[in-house]
């Protein structure tokens, strides 16, 4: 590898790196380069990407092995159950009205932007700007979650209604759980920010949180495209 | 280096002798046993299908190459170890070689060539083993359910979902099993109503998983097997090779090879026997009293049933989600007198039982005859 | 600057149970990993003895009237051996040795390190809880669906759910562990420790961590889907309700094939440390070795369907070719090891004996695995005892022999005392003979058609003698653990004092005291090559 070893560090490398600018390129040892928490977050996100890849692979494979997608539900013999089945089939047709999903997408994308504005702010040492931006991000995240809960309540099918329901709720549900996790991280960062713990020199936790938030956003875009459009 | 523990030659020597003694003992045991049978035990059984013979030829090549590689590399290890042990007076460091590009390239290239060769020959064999005859003489669907095999014989022009000309539900014995004509090719479909099983006949050197495919009969696994003309009269053991639950072990079956003429006679006889069974009364019209029977957890809730000789209805409630059951009725000789159609649960159906002579009969689920059966008394 | 002084990062050792329960010191955590893994090894070994006792002769003996228990035993034997013994064991050695080898004071995230460890016994308890709640998981360690579904004659009851939950926990522990290893290796190396001066064990742990990071989450997702199928009426894997049975196998093996390299690469790394030391030569072809390790890691992601050759749902030639190719980088390693020994001066201490056991036995396991790469041959061998033989030759003949070599090699560093050589050799001989007696006959059993996962077999099938031999072998292996335990017991009390560097080794961990202080190093030697201690001993110019 390319790393050179001209600079020597004395003291615990784990401490010394915290002083460095986290935006510098990836380096291979303790001298310079991104900090441990940020590297850790990047690696963790890699594993999360693989986790969602597994779910997506399942979605496409189940979809490929179905006769019809979204599936058509067959009812029983009496009129009531035929009607119920037809209604269920109708509910599956998310393509028909992707607008609600689209709104959720816009909300998340904006929250990614505000998150990034917050990062730029704290890098400039603009603490109020950072707190304001992250506050907005957190609110948008919560709005997204509420929106998703509302969406669920209107969908008219459940997790056990055909592979469609199963994959839909599993994918969006796990994404929602990740948004929730991200929102908690945002709250913690915001709390620490209000306590004045971050500066342009010291804000690894902020950077790590924003990376995670961007990741969650990207996953949603993939989900929205697959479930509501494709 | 004198402080290194274990450089005492005595223990080393003891270990060396022990290992050598074990190896010698092993060899002696082998020689004492029949040497040729030991040699044969490193090969699969004599192949009894044309495809199996090709697989065996491939195995022989792979085995030969493997033995050569093994002997060379293992020999190199042993020779190096014996030759370069540290001797008294070895105080100078040995030459500190860090590597050698030519050697390195050699042992990348050589194995690459070997595995490419192996890949090519196994691909060729694969193609001919997997090849399917466009017009097989016979089509059979092997049905593997927890925990029993049955075999449906299809008309030769059958599509995948055609109903069988007749079904053999006994997986073994003189009456049961998979009957195949010698000298001909049979096309075999594999159907599972429940979990994954595998069709395996060691003498064919072949197995193929029986994967449940839900509503998609056309996605069932299938393959051809061609029996050499010389093997008429043989019987082989087959078995399920994919863990399928507590009864996995008992899912065995027999393969009987018949001479073509015998096979035709057997086939016609089976068709005749099937046609001789009384046709079920027209469905929809419930005749006589209704007798309830429930299947749950792959068990009937009743081990005895009673019905009038004038005919009756079995109200059959299958509570097993996704598992098909039926209720067939056999007379004292084991011949099927009522052959009802199976259906997956949950669901209920009225099976109309035609008038039967009074007496005792056996009823069973044709898919789980081992677990689901009982006695029917007709009065 | 000749050496760098590192300041202590933690306060002085406290002692007692509390310290062990709350420690974040990578060395203590490493030892915890190792001890914990050995406990599970004995447990899973006992289950294996149950299996072997049943199979010693035809007819049902132990499991008469309770055959389901047999299925539970091999399921749990496989699961525990793999997820709670061999993977954590290697992670434990990595934990102990890697920070020392790269001159770091600890892992990058010490508290996450402790968390990863403590999730293991918890996960293990979940897994085993099945035995007392109406039956453990019984669908094989591979848990193929629909057999693993909650349906009659399949996997009803909580055992399978506990299995899922336990493995999600253990998997998460592995993922966190791999993040930790990667951050440590990338960021915490001592000055002068460039990537290509890293000891091979560190390299193998690096590649292993990448495999864990990329493969384990996919397994987690599969486990969660199975859980949803079982408990919330999902339709992922059950074809009777519109799912896809082969999907489970694809995601399972997408993880589990890379995982088999997780189970062997660090063991390969360990013997790559040991062979040079006991032949007094550098590792032959260091860079080739690194590339071969990376190559195995990369190829490992493209061969998973070789476990599914008989499913009729995979493109056979591609996976056959890739599987064959795996033999090439592995062969590179094999030849590099042999040429490390070549023209060396071998001292037959116990670590070397076990390392040689690894070489000679892994060779057999690798070659009999390559048989299955020839797809039509695998049609004959799949799901027979041939595969059982293969997996034990690589996992026991490879990984376990590697672990034993590593134990004898690093025990002095961990405890300050040497393990006894005499008992070590007795253990080696017993284990080596017992191992071959157990698993070699399984080749012949498999060829003659004996399927895996059966509690009983026909007495006229010709399998009686071979099975009896395997059972005797199994008990011989068990017997070989007695000298090991005795050895550890007496050596901890009265073993020979080791000193810093009893083996005249090459890597940094031998530059500090045995056992090392909490912060690892008072001073580090200069690092100019992959053998800093050799340089120190012989002067930098010696043969370089
Ligand atoms: C440590 C674990 C480990 C390792 C390292 C390996 C290594 C390999 N495995 Fe194995 N395998 C398992 C663990 C492992 N396996 C397990 C647990 C199962 C069973 C799972 C289950 O179903 O329960 C299994 C099953 C399994 C199967 C499926 C069998 C079946 O179910 O039908 C196959 C098929 O191809 C396979 C192939 C290989 C190959 C080609 C290698 C190669 O990596 C080996 C390469 C090494 C060599 C070949 C030797 C050295 C090389 C040379 C000296 C060069 C010259 C050699 C040649 C030119 C051939 N393995
Ligand atoms: C690292 C992995 C590993 C290891 C080390 C082993 C070790 C052993 N295995 Fe295992 N085995 C697997 C992984 C492993 N196995 C896997 C993955 C499967 C497939 C499972 C499946 O099909 O789903 C399998 C399956 C398997 C089978 C096939 C079962 C079947 O298909 O029906 C058999 C049969 O003989 C077997 C035997 C043994 C034996 C005898 C040992 C011996 O080496 C064990 C040695 C014995 C001991 C270590 C016990 C020692 C302890 C004592 C005697 C008591 C002392 C106690 C205290 C001090 C508390 N194993
Ligand atoms: Cu059916 Cu195993
Ligand atoms: Cu594999």
Q: How would you describe this protein?
A:
The complex is a heterotrimer of chains A (230), B (379) and C (544). With 230 residues, chain A is mostly helical. Chain A is 69% helix and 0% strand. The radius of gyration of chain A is 22 Å and the shape is elongated. Mean pLDDT of chain A is 82; it is low at 1-31. By secondary structure, chain B is of the alpha+beta class. Chain B has 3 domains: 11-90 and 100-130, Helix Hairpins (Orthogonal Bundle); 138-275, Cupredoxins -  blue copper proteins (Immunoglobulin-like); 290-378, Immunoglobulin-like (Sandwich). Chain B is built from 5 helices and 20 strands. The longest helix of chain B has 34 residues, at 50-83. Chain B is elongated and about 105 Å long. Chain B starts with 8 loop residues before the first helix and ends with a strand. Chain C has 544 residues and is mostly helical. Chain C has helices at 17-22, 26-55, 67-101, 110-129, 159-187, 200-231, 245-262, 265-279, 286-299, 316-341, 350-373, 375-381, 385-415, 421-439, 441-447, 464-494, 532-538. Chains in contact: A-C, B-C. One heme-A is lined by residues 41-42, 45-46, 48-49, 51-52, 74-75, 77-78, 81-82, 85-86, 140-142, 388, 391-392, 395-396, 400, 438, 452-453, 470, 474, 477-478, 481 of chain C.
Short structural description:
The complex is a heterotrimer of chains A (230), B (379) and C (544). By secondary structure, chain B is of the alpha+beta class.
List the helices and strands and how they pair.
The complex is a heterotrimer of chains A (about 230), B (about 375) and C (about 550).
Chain A lengths: L12 H4 L19 H29 L14 H13 L7 H25 L3 H29 L6 H33 L9 H26 L1
Helix pairs in contact in A: 2-6, 2-7, 4-5, 4-7, 5-6, 6-7
Chain B lengths: L8 H24 L2 H6 L9 H34 L17 H30 L7 E8 L2 E7 L11 E3 L9 E4 L3 E7 L5 E5 L4 E5 L11 E5 L8 E6 L11 E7 L1 H17 L13 E6 L8 E4 L4 E7 L5 E2 L2 E3 L5 E3 L4 E2 L2 E7 L5 E6 L8 E6 L1
Parallel strand pairs in B: 1-5, 4-10, 11-13, 12-20
Antiparallel strand pairs in B: 1-2, 2-3, 5-8, 6-7, 6-9, 9-10, 13-18, 14-17, 15-16, 15-19, 19-20
Helix pairs in contact in B: 3-4
Chain C lengths: L16 H6 L3 H30 L11 H35 L8 H20 L29 H29 L12 H32 L13 H18 L2 H15 L6 H14 L16 H26 L8 H24 L1 H7 L3 H31 L5 H19 L1 H7 L16 H31 L37 H7 L6
Helix pairs in contact in C: 2-3, 2-4, 2-16, 3-4, 3-5, 3-13, 4-5, 5-6, 6-7, 6-8, 6-9, 8-11, 8-13, 9-10, 10-11, 11-13, 11-14, 13-14, 13-15, 14-16, 15-16
The structure holds heme-A (2 copies), dinuclear copper ion and copper (II) ion (CU).
One heme-A binds next to helix 2, helix 3, helix 13 and helix 16 of chain C.
